[in-house]
Structures are given as C-alpha cells and as structure tokens.
Protein 1
Amino acid sequence: MSDKAKDAIVKVKRYVPERDEQPHWETYFVSWEPLDRVLDALHQIKWKQDGSLTFRRSCAHGICGSDAMLINGVNRLACKVLIKDLKQPIKVEPLRGLTVEKDLIVDMEPFFAQYRKVLPFLVNDEPAPERERLQSPEERARFDDTTKCILCAACTTSCPVYWSDDEYQGPAAIVNAHRFIFDSRDRAAHERLEILGDAEGAFKCRTTFNCTDACPRGIHVTRAIQEVKQAILFDKL
C-alpha cells in the first residue's frame, strides 16, 4: 500500500483553561501513510490545522516516554501506535488520574513526587573499590526487567487504585524501587521497603494487571509489585 489512505478521523479531547469550563471533543481529518503513527497525526493537526493543540513529545522513538496518552481508551505512547492498527474514529485523551493543564498535557509533578519518595538511585556508602562494583550475570538479571522504565506514567495512570487515591505510590514508583531493592550493589533496600510498606504503598495494589498491559516497554509490572510485597514481608520477619 503505497498510496495515501483515506483520511483518518481523529477526535481529541481539548481543554484550554482560559476559555473552557469543561473539556470537550474536537474532530479532525488527517491524511496518513501506512507507517504513520498517532504522533504523526497530532503533528499534522498542530502544524497544518490548529496550532493551538498542545501535547508533549520529544524523541518520537518510544524512549523518552513524554507522549503517553489515552488512545482509544488505552494508555499508550503516541509515537508507537500505528494509525492503521486503530479503530476509527481515533479518540485521543489526556492520561487519567492527573490534573489536566491544557489539552493532552497533565501535571506530572504528583507522579514524580511519588517516584522521588522511593529513593530511585543507588545508595552505597561503603568505601569505593579500585574498579567498578562487579555483579554476576545472575545478580544483574534479578532486576533487569525493571531497569526498562521510562517514567511515562502509563502504568500508574492506568491503575484504578491511583484514580481514586492520589496518595497511593503507584506502579511506576514501586517498579523503580524494585530496580534498586534487588540490586546487589545497593544498601538501602530496608529503607525503601519501609517506605513501600506503609498504608499507601505496595499492598494497595489489587493485582488488576492494568499496569502490565499499559507498559510500552513490556515490563512485568504486576510481578515486580508482588516481588516487592514479598520482600516487605520477609524484611519484617
């Protein structure tokens, strides 16, 4: 299929706080090629039809995570979803569970505040070795899956617990804690497990698997949360 397909119908939930009391839908018609993604459609709308449309994007290759949004009711990265694979009209909305600032842009600060709480960095106060701190392949494999997180918030904002409780630390924070809890070089696992063991921590998870389904990097998010729960219980023994 080399010729352009017929126009795609793209419905975008718009909200401009200076003029709108409530979000509303606006419909656009976008020409597309077989390999065009939803991000290409949004670019075409912004560049050629309505320059006021506002959304985040950066690398456009599924690495930065900045263009996570609700596409046909599912949290996805706009740069990874092909138009040809979607049922029309294509409905594009901001992520749930975070305050909408304008159009498809949500306030990410509450999400990053929960992320910062779990100490998402290596902690080791032991004297530095002459060379790097070595790990076996097995030690590295223990947390390899959770190193893939790009902080797009797709998992956290797909969680029904998070929708109703913005104090819940959320899947992404727990995933990033997992990455260091099980790192053999780190020495702050107990502190993280204390943080995640409180009333708003890992045990709020209801194992709905929404987070795993939403992750654009294929991380086994629910499994990681269960492993953190087990570590908390073991740490309390």
Note: The beta strands are 5-14, 24-32, 68-71, 74-77, 90-93, 100-102, 105-106.
Protein 2
Amino acid sequence: MNNEKATYKQSNPVALLPILVFLVLFIGSGIITKDFYAMPTIVAFLIALAVAFMQNKDLSFSEKLKVCAKGIGDENVVTMCLIFLAAGAFSGAVTAAGGADSTVYLGLSLIPAKFAVVGIFLIGCFVSISMGTSVGTIAALAPIAVGISEATGFSMALCLGAVVSGAMFGDNLSMISDTTIAAVRTQGCEMSDKFKMNFRIVLPAAIVAAVIYFVMTLGGTPEITLGTYNIWQVVPYILVLGGAIAGINVFVVLIAGTITSVIVGVATGTMAPGAIFSSIGSGVTGMYDITVISIVVAAVAELVKAHGGIEFIIRVIKNSAKSKKGAMVGIAALVSGVDLATANNTIAIVLSGPIAKEISTEYGIDPRRSASLLDIFGSVVQGLIPYGAQLLYAAAAVETVTGNPMGTYAIIPFVFYPMLMAVSALVFIFFSKEKQ
C-alpha cells in the first residue's frame, strides 16, 4: 500500500462484521452441538476472512491481498509464528525425554504427603511455567490429583481445582507459552520485561491461593505412592526457565532447551536416537494450528483495520474510558469478552492484541502493562469457563481413572488462582503508579 492514509478509513462499525460472523459461527455451533470444539477455529476464521474480502468497495481484490500481506508480514506476527514453532520443538523433545513425569514426581517427593493438595498446586505452577502449556500440565497432573483424592479423602473437585490453578499460573507467565508469545509480540515488548511486570501482579494471587489450599486440607493424613523420576530429565526445564528469566533471546533459550532435552533423553534411555527428529517434529506439528490461525487472524485484523473497524473500537473505549486506568480496564474487558466467545485465550490475545496495541498507544500505556493485561485476563477467563479445554481435560481425567463422570461446574468453585488473579490485576490497575 503506497498511500495508507488514502485507503484506511477512520471509523466504521460495519467493518467489524467479519469478527461478528466468526463469533456467531463459533458460539452458534457450540450451542447447537453442545460442543464448543465441534467447528474448527480455523474454519470459522476463514469464513470471517471471506466476509472481510467482500467488504470495503474502495479497495480492489488485489489491493485487499496487499492489505492482508501487510498484516501477515508484520514483524511481530512473523516472529510470533517462528517462536510458536521453536516452542513446539522444545515441548516435543522434553516430553519424549521424560521431563514432564520426572518433574511431577520429583516435586511430590519433596513435599510431605499431608500437604499434597497445596503441593500439587505448586508443582503445577512449576510444570506449567516450564512446559508453557496449561493443557499439557493438566494432562500430566490431573490423574495424579485423582489418586491424591482417593488416597486422602480430600474432595476430588478440590484436588483438580488445585491442578487447574497451577496450570493457569504458567499459562500466564511462561516464556514459551503461546499466550505469552502472542501478548508480547502484539504489544511490542521484551518477554523478560513483561515477565517481571506480570509476576509482580500475580504473585500475591498465587501466595493467597496456596494459603487457601493449605488451610482447606489441614488435618489430612494421606499416603501417596509415587512414580519414579530422574533428576537429569528436569534439567531442560530449569535451563529454559533460568535462561528466559535472565533475558536471553527466546530463540537461543528454546534451541538450547531442545538440544539439552535430546541429550538427556538419549543418555537416560527414554529417547531412542532414531526418535529424536520425530519427537521434535511432533512438537512442531502441535503448533501448526495456532500458527496458521495467527496468520489468518492477522489478515482479518488488517482488513478490518483498513475498513475502519479498529478505529471504531478505539473510539468506543476512548469515549467510555476517559482515563488511562479506564483504557486498561477496556483492554481487560476486550480480551475477556473474546475469550468467553472463543474458549481459547491464545486466539483471544491474537485477535485482541492489535486493538489493545492501538489503545495503549493512544493512552500512553506501557507495552509491558498492556501485554500483561492481555495475558492475565485471557488466563482468568480461560481457567474458569466450563467449556474451556482446561476444565474439560480435568473433568475427563476423573472418568478416565475412576470410570465416574464429573461435571466441570463442580471444579470451578475450587479454581481459586484465576479468581484471585483477576482481583490482583484490578487492584494493580486502580492503585499502582506507573513508572515512566
């Protein structure tokens, strides 16, 4: 586009039609089929993209393709997609090397059995911040939580609530979480900087959640049978976590973690030399969906922006906000609403990110803050919606292990961390002073 000002409209609510179409398709199919994952997200977004192409008569089809290319070729979008693939490579390698199981059992071996519930919450925090995936953490820990419940007599919903809470801690903070990657890249800040600010906001929530789980399980005398672990298999997680906190380039950290995982896996006999590339490949393949979705969303967002949709949302929030704090609440509400509709906090951040960036620029909000707000409130909603993958995985573990079904609604009252995280973030918005 040689003359962006001449082709990008100022404010137009009709430009939001593609997003509305996506939400109607996605939510409608979920309500009709009672399965919010019945319609693949990418299909709904492709239909939204087609609708976006049919709008804005001021641009020819070829000009609209250029607009899409501009959005897809944005430095943040390209970097985000490459990080997704690098994170997938690490995840595939470290899982094949036995790192997830060893990390769980090592943590449980260090915690007295009577503190098993608060212990599995803390282990969930470490595993999720190391693995970068809440669903992967729940898949690893939920069966153990069921076993803890059966061994101790503690409520099954309470034990699973602790697992989901711990999983959402890392989903929001991990340097290799797709939500963190999306939040950082869309807002244009460094991961280490966002981590430090985000950690300051959510640490009080994590501490209070741990205290609540501790108090609720006082007096228990459980006996837990642990699986085996190998301390060397935990090393890749520690390496990645330490390198990321130290501010080392994320690509360097992930590549180092992947290589270390391969070395550890082969040395400990958990990964056959012939399975090295297939393990890495399976992890990368697992990131294909979110990578392709990010590309399509970038195209839709740029077309919506060209037609005046982003500017319209900014004006609505601006008219409602009246202040920087109000704008931050607007960003929080925006990503929360999109996550409620999509049941996927990564997609919610990818979709909301460009709008949040415009709002933060308009009001002079630190990019670290806007990235933190996107990630925090996306995780808050994702950890509490009964049709989200996290609670569905947790409930499914009960039926898999015991044969007895459990509804996700039974777990929600015990998922304390996301609730406290929302409170902590709102306190941060209204009472903290921003350092320029």
Note: The CA atoms of residues 195 and 427 lie 18 Å apart.
Protein 3
Amino acid sequence: MGVRIHPTAEVSDKAKIGEGSSIWHHAQVRENAVIGENCIIGKGVYVDAGVVIGNNVKIQNYVSVYHGLTIEDGVFVGPHVCFTNDMRPRAVNPDGSLKAADDWVLSETRVKRGAALGANSTIRCGITIGEWAMVGSGSVVTKDVPAYGLVYGNPARLHGFVCPCGEITEKRSQNEQTVTVQCPKCKRTLDISIQDWEKLK
C-alpha cells in the first residue's frame, strides 16, 4: 500500500513510517519518530522527536504528540487532544534567564492498546491510560486510568468500564479478587480487579 504523505506535510527523513500509513495536510513528523503501519496522522498533527506510535493508530486533527509519549497499537486520539511532558513548566529560571533544553525533567506518558481519547481532552504527563480505556471529550486526566476504564470530567473520574466494542458494561458477579462485567451489546465478559472497581465514583 505504501505511505501517503500530503505535499504540505513536513516529515523528517530520519523518521520511520510504516506501510499503509497516511500523513495529512500541514502535519510535522520529527527525526527518529516511529509511526507504525496503517496509521492516520490528521491535519496539523505534530509528532515530536523520538515518539513511538504503534500500528493502526488514528490521531485526529491538531494533536501535538510530544517527546516522552508512547502510543500503543489501535489507539484513537480525538481532535485537539492535549498531551504534556513537563510536570513543572517554566519559560525562565528564577533569575529571569531563558531555560535551556536541559533545564527540565521529562515525564513519560503511555496510552495503551485500544484506548480512546475524546476530543479536546487534556492528558497530564507521567500517567498511563490502560488498555481499551475511554476518556470522555473535554476531560482533564490527572491520574492513571485502569484497563477498560471510562473516565470523564474535570478532573476526570472513573464512572464505569467499557467493552472493547465501546459499550458500557454491566456488573454480573463478584468474588474476593475480581468483578465480572458483561457488554450488553456483544455479550463479551471482562474481569475487573477489586482494586480498580473500588475506584468507581
């Protein structure tokens, strides 16, 4: 299938782009970035140096994917999602001098397989979004999200667990270690740890 790169996109010749991926209008992909196979990089997306993006990832318009972020296979990143990578950002030092490239500490963030981040959500650096988790549009996520977790709000709180097909699951049974939930649509069952279940608000 090859790689499709729009003429207005700026892609470093030191970046690695997988087969079948598309990079659209005015996107920028910097050196040593790795983008997997069959990805869609939307209009105006910025992919920083050294970022790793898995296969079958969709990143919608105007998302900035900064250094220190890893996006695993099958992730959906909605338009205008905001990622960060510095817990204590400053433009200048206490004496007023401009901060240099080495004057900050990188905080790494991971978005795990199959997760979906709604439009205009903000993801604080240094956290992990679990497999198949879902973040509601406009949310501000400040802590780890468990696998299959549905979070939304400001700050985002855990409100349920979602099936990989996207439906909100329903509780079916519970023991000392896990809660079993089932999707009302596809009937898939999932086991959620008691620790994660007790985070529900």
Note: Helices lie at 194-197.
Protein 4
Amino acid sequence: MSPRHDAGLDLPGDRRSAPADWCEQWTFDAVFTDPRDGSVLLGVAVGVGRHPALGRGWYHAVVVGPGRDTVSVVDTDLAVSNGAGGLELRSPGLWADHNPTAAFGHWTVAAEAFGVALEDPWEAWGRAFGAPQPVGLDLEWDPAPGADLAGLDPIDADLGGTWRVGCEVHGVVLVADERHEVIGFGTRGRSWGTALPVAKGHHWMWWRDDNGSWFTHAARSDPDRDPRDAPSPAVSVTAWAPVLGGGGTPLAQAVVRCDDGSRSGVGWLHQR
C-alpha cells in the first residue's frame, strides 16, 4: 500500500491522546553539489520531534562540508504543539518552522538560529564548545518521481512506523557571513511510535548515483563497532555531522560516498 493513502502518516496531527512514551519525528537531509564537477559543497540535516502527550520536543540542524567546521544547532527539550498544523518551534536563539502544502508533497523548512561551529564534530556529544555562529535555512523539499525509499510497517498512523522519500531540494543556506543558493537532492520522512527512528546498534543510509537513481541500505551494526566508523556500503566520509537527538540520544550522521559494487553515489548515513 502506498503511504499516500493516509495523510495522517505524514502531516502533524492532533496526538494529545498519545501515550507518554509515544513520539514522532520528521527528518530532512540533503546534499548540495558543485554543478561543475559534482563534488560536495554542503550537507544539511534537520530533525524535529515531539512527545505530544508531554508537549515537549527536540530539534537539530547541522550544516557540514568538506574542509569546514561542523555547524550545529541543537535543543533537546523544547515546548511544542501537540495538535495539528505546522511544526513551528521557538526558544531563546531559535526559530524554526516546517510546513507542508499537502500530504506527501512539497514542504518548506526554515530556521533562524544561533549554532556553534565545531572544529571537532564529536564535540557535539560533549560540551559542544565552539564559536557561536548564526544559521539560516530557507529550503524546499519536493518528492522526486519514483523515489519512495522506505515503506510502512505497520501501516498505521497511530501505532508505529516509518517512511522516507527521495526529494529534490533547493533554497538558501546562511552560515555566519556566507550565503549559499543551493540546488541538490535529499530525503524527507517521518517516524513514529515508542522508539527513536534509528535503534541503538543499527544504521540506515541512502545515496543517489550520477544517473539520478536512488539506493538505500539498512542493517544492524556490529555491536563492537564504534559509531564513528561508517559501515559498508559507505566507502568514505565527506563530513561527520553528529547530533543529540530525542532525549539527548547521540546520533552519528555523515555525508558519505557509497559504492555497492555496481553503482556509486553520495548520500547520508544515520546510525547509533
């Protein structure tokens, strides 16, 4: 069954009756490349989640790229709406909004915030001590034809599940005094239930090849693997983008180059 059969699987709904341990998260990530040679210029990942029964949630946005500091915006305990409508967040130093025009269609992602520039990206899991930098996002996600990357299991808007779709992404990224007008590709999705989107000891990655075809890989990781090591089919890490997710849970993310032996491309890795 296509997820398009139920708008409740995508749009923020009235979840005030949800159990206290039930949560949901919307994710947006993208890779922006240099049109001259296809090299990666920037990677952006945004996550917004909420525990509707508690009226609390979390937010992260991270901007990375080769040869540049990781710029991270994180708030792990926000007051959020538990009803229907958009996903607007406000706290000292942070404004962010995420709005759909239709279920499983176009979304806008905007933010004005103060983040920190980290020379060592793994400081995001520690003191996150770095130089304060303003961050602005004004990005648009449009589903790419034929790029459904993950289905729904179970297919229920209230119990639990996850889905993601490949998207074309464009807009503006502001970091400090830099302004980048960007065009690229990425994914958008929603996960919901009593667990975070990526379980401990698991990873999920997507990538798109030079012909515009989309590929994914999800698996349980070796329990002895350091989460700072990228699993196969990732063959190299362009930039690490670790953050603290819901409840302050460490989440290892990265822009990666992948190769499964028959095709290669660039995408995002998410793992715990």
Note: The longest strand covers residues 131-150.
